[in-house]
Amino acid sequence: MPKSKRLMELMMTVNRKRRFKVQELADEFGVSKRTILRDLQELSELGVPLYSEVGPHGGYQVVRERVLPPIAFTEEEAVAMFFAVHALRHYSSLPFEAESASALSKFYLHMPGDVRDRIDSMKDRVDFITATRRGDAPCLAILLDAAVRRKVLAVEYESKEEGLGSRTIQPVCIYANNGFWYCTAYCFLRQGFRVFRCDRIRKAEDDPGTEPLELGDVRLSRRVAAEPREPVRLRAELNRSGVQRCEAELWLAPMLHVREDGSGVIDTDVSRGDIPFYTEFFIELGDKALLEKPAELRDSIRRRLSELLARYQ
């Protein structure tokens, strides 16, 4: 096997393995241990972060931030990858902010000149706009790591109702919607799943004193809705425009039932403490919705409309 091909395959092999011994690689590639040692030295000089461990159970290991093997992209794939990462710039916070900026810079600089020219001409022609929010979410990376590794966190969370307080949570997933980042997590205080606005999490750190729970099949594609506190029944009829407006709200999707003619209905239990939120939401919907119950939400909407009317008299 030519040396250049062997080095390429060796790079992919050591990136795939968590740890390895020189003799294992020598046997796999059919060369001597001395040849493998020279090859590993060359890979190290090329930037593959290797370190050795001595002892009877020692060997070589690639550190966590290992270098991935080169991948050949077509021109169309390269352009698509560039704009996928480029679109993330609209978010004020990302769980991998520095890494995405570095990856985009590397990707752009190593493209042929004509491909860079094509991308430059497309920047003012295509974009993926999302709402720009002022609030940062500095704990995104910690929340994502906890969700992946199934760890429990002690957080300081500022809610509208209770102000700043301490919570113990086990994150399940994080997701972005309408410019905000959200974290679905099991809350040990409420003993159930809750959705937290990530920009309201002021501080987060590992809580080794709390045993993680086995949360089964809960993940991003199967998010669970938080159980309503002091539940009240909410029912509202929606015309086709109302359905389209509600479909834009990710949190509302599980509550929305769409009929064949395009109209729909919301019929579910909600928390009594969320009445102020639903008051503003249904006022915004205007004549796109007809709220049937609960009576206290209808009363709240009337009071709020009277307050708004008084401001313009």
Structure annotation, total helices: 10
What Rg, in angstroms, do the CA atoms define? 27 Å
Mean residue pLDDT: 83
Quick one: how many beta strands?
12
Distance between the termini: 87 Å
Assign the structural class, choosing from mainly alpha, mainly beta, alpha/beta, alpha+beta, or little secondary structure: alpha+beta
Strand order of the largest sheet: 7-6-5-4-8
How would you sum up the major sheet? 5 strands, antiparallel
Oligomeric assembly: single chain
What is the helical fraction, as a range of percent?
25-40%
Strand content: 15-25%
Indicate the overall shape. Answer: elongated
> Low-confidence segments, ≥5 residues, pLDDT <50?
none
Order of helices and strands: HEHHEEHHHHEEEEEEHEEHEH
Summed up:
This protein is α+β, with helices and mostly antiparallel strands and 313 residues long.
Describe this structure in words.
By secondary structure, this protein is an alpha+beta fold. It has helices spanning 3-16, 22-29, 33-45, 75-86, 97-109, 113-122, 140-149, 240-247, 275-285, 295-310, and strands at residues 19-20, 50-53, 59-62, 153-159, 163-177, 180-187, 192-197, 201-206, 231-238, 256-258, 264-271, 289-293. It has a 5-stranded antiparallel beta sheet. Strands 10-11-9-12 form a 4-stranded antiparallel beta sheet. A hairpin with a 5-residue loop joins strand 2 and strand 3 (59-62). The protein is elongated and about 85 Å long.
